[in-house]
Amino acid sequence: MIKKFGASIGSALLALHAGSAAAALQLNLTPGVTVGSHVAYDLHNLMMWIIVVIFVAVFAVMFWSVYAHRKSMGHKAANFHENTTVELLWTIVPIIILIFMAWPATKGLLMVRDTSNPDMTIKVTGYQWKWGYDYIKGEGEGISFLSQLSTPQDQIYGKEPKGEHYLLETDNHLVVPVGKKIRVLTTAADVIHSWFVPAFAVKQDAIPGFVRDTWFRAEKEGEYRGQCAELCGKDHGFMPIVVDVVSAEKYSAWVAEKKKEMAAAQDDPNKKWELAEMKARGEKVYAANCVACHQANGQGIKGSFPALDGSKMVTGPAEAHIDRVLNGKPGTAMAAFGKQLSDTDIAAAITYERNSWSNKTGNVVQPSDVKAARK
């Protein structure tokens, strides 16, 4: 019985030790894969040890003073009022500590803010709730695409098995070459977003009407994830980022393939679409961009997002409907899709909305109608 009890205690202690070791490994930051992330990691460790030393010193002096100068031993409270030595000590010592902390912090900050001489420049635009990427300088110049959560809502909210990164999966990954300095320009089309990739130690706000910049140089190939770090609205938690860092050869191959894909996806602006084919395309566009707010059944979310089924806006003049989708509605969560989607995709989404559920207008909005409304 005693042996069993001893064995149980031993097992419990081993489990506790193992759990403590695992917890200790999770207390620190995760080392990143960029110079900026190394600087942040080293500064964190430096500041932590300075804090530990100050904590131990202050509490050691305090406990020693309480014990060695207690009243029961006949000690009386000392009077340090207008004591020049004490005044100098508690002024000079903190200044020295501050300088010791501020110097490496300032040096690191200047380094991570230096966006000069990049190998590539990528513009990142935040939308509710997706990211737009435009390669504007360097290899891949001219490539442009949107990136949004790819996990189906049925999997997020339903009982289907969820993957490890189900809230951090995107349909299009940002792809960059390893070892190259990437300058990132951030802005937003609606509200404030924040482009955040922890492994790169990059977190830059994307503010409407402003262009801000940051940079990173990934030292290791791999797939790195992040997400919007600003409370940007209803689907803030569904705005992930995935960056693929690949070799120079793989990057060149991706650029060539992406440009072919973009060329193949371009539509004939003069094509006249039939209702059936435009509605079929519109269903896909609606599912990717509209369903989160207006729902698959077109009923919206009461009190938050209006229903499109039976809506006067949707069943009324097409011109008003086109204007709403192109330019959004200020003061609401209705985003402007004019800069996000092509003329054909906007025409398809509008056609789908005007001919789905109980809406049976029979109208086919053509890309040329959208193009004319942009002027």
Descriptive account of the structure:
With 375 residues, the chain is α+β, with helices and mostly antiparallel strands. It folds into 3 domains: 29-112, Helix Hairpins, CATH 1.10.287; 120-265, Cupredoxins -  blue copper proteins (Immunoglobulin-like, Sandwich); 275-374, Cytochrome c-like domain (Cytochrome Bc1 Complex, Chain D, domain 2), CATH 1.10.760. It is built from 11 helices and 10 strands. A hairpin with a 6-residue loop joins strand 2 and strand 3. 25% of the residues are buried.
Topology:
Elements: H1 2-25, H2 35-68, H3 84-112, E1 120-127, E2 130-137, E3 144-147, H4 153-157, E4 174-177, E5 182-188, E6 193-197, E7 202-206, E8 212-216, E9 222-228, E10 240-246, H5 248-265, H6 275-289, H7 291-294, H8 312-315, H9 318-327, H10 343-354, H11 367-374
Parallel strand pairs: 1-5, 4-10
Antiparallel strand pairs: 1-2, 2-3, 5-8, 6-7, 6-9, 9-10
Helix pairs in contact: 2-3, 6-10, 9-11, 10-11
List keywords for this structure.
about 375 residues; single chain; 3 domains; about 15% strand; 11 helices; Immunoglobulin-like; 5-stranded mixed beta sheet; elongated; Cytochrome Bc1 Complex, Chain D, domain 2; 10 strands
